[in-house]
């Protein structure tokens, strides 16, 4: 077994083994740690590039060999920096996708809770009883309207005379 695989196997937690994989929070934490580590490496490489450029300028035409070596190292550091940029982009994309997946899972879980609550609320309701109740309400509204119409109509006291 290689040292690298031993290193990565040693980092897996006992809690992760029992569940068949890390939780979204654990994975997000590790991705953020990796992003942080790569950002630090970027800063380090940027300072190294500046140093090599300064060394190349210092040697200039006096010591061409040392100046060329400094420029070659600078180019190597720039290549590493470019690779880190690509890796960071990939990690950021993966982190965002994981965050979105975790959010979607939470939303779906909460929608399930809401559906269960609605079932519980509707468990005591009978559609036939509701229909009967609505008919009773409609009948009572009709009666109330008839009473209102009867009260609001002018009484014909003295309007009509029977000869």
TrEMBL record:
Q: How does it sit in the membrane?
A: Peripheral membrane protein
- One Pfam family, short name please? Snf7
The protein depicted here goes by the name CHM4C protein
InterPro entries reported in the protein's UniProt record: Snf7_fam
- Per the UniProt entry, what is one GO biological process? vesicle budding from membrane
Q: Which domain of life is it from?
A: Eukaryota
| Keyword vocabulary terms for this entry | Coiled coil, Cytoplasm, Endosome, Membrane, Protein transport, Transport
The keyword Chaperone is assigned to this record: no
Name the gene that codes for it: Chmp4c
Q: Which Gene3D superfamilies match?
A: ESAT-6-like
Q: Where is this region: Disordered?
A: 1-25
Q: Does the keyword Transcription regulation apply?
A: no
């Amino acid at each position: 077994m290689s040292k690298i695989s031993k290193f990565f196997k040693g980092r897996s937690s006992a809690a992760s083994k029992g569940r068949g994989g890390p939780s979204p929070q654990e994975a997000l934490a590790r991705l953020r740690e990796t992003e942080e580590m790569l950002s630090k490496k970027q800063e380090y490489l940027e300072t190294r590039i500046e140093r090599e450029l300064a060394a190349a300028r210092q040697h200039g035409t006096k010591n061409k060999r040392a100046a060329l070596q400094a420029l070659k190292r600078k180019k190597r550091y720039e290549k590493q920096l470019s690779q880190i940029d690509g890796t960071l982009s990939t990690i950021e994309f993966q982190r965002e996708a994981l965050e979105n997946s975790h959010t979607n899972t939470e939303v779906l879980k909460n929608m399930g809770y809401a559906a269960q609550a609605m079932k519980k609320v509707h468990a005591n309701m009978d559609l036939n009883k509701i229909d009967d109740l609505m008919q009773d309400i409609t009948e009572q509204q009709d009666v109330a309207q008839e009473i209102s119409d009867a009260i609001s109509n002018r009484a014909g006291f003295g309007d009509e005379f029977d000869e």
